[in-house]
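Hi C.,

You asked whether I'd gotten around to modeling the 148-residue construct. I have! Everything is below, sequence then structure, no commentary in between.
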Amino acid sequence: MSTVWESIQTKLNVDKKLLLTYCLVYFIWGMIMDWFGAQVEIARFTYWWQVITCYILYMVPISLLLRGLPFHAQYAYGLIAMGLLEFGGYAFETSYAYPNNILDRFFNVRNFSLGMALFFALYFPLGNWGVGKIHNFLFNTKQRESVG
């Protein structure tokens, strides 16, 4: 058990600049997605600050844990993480799905959360890839391990 905990600590112990890059990218990404979801009336957070709890406090650590894994593994583990997040968000009504939204009409209301989880699971491999590129560009570094 201690080796699992040590592995988690090692993966989460990253350069402060890399962590800041993750937080800024995910915060901006979250605000844009929340705004977009509200504008096209698909779904939105109940409160704007949920971008911080979901994107920074939940998704950034998971992204760090998944960093370096193959795309398909990041997506598969991300699907579990996003499935739990989507389920909780709608079960506790901290997220709001607009009635009769485009996803409901296209996939059926019973498949809405599943569709959201399938889509948002892509955030982990794409986020790791994008943050790696941005971090390397801004700080002119080469990361030791693959991020995407």
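If it helps when you're writing up: The chain has a mean pLDDT of 91.

Thanks,
B.
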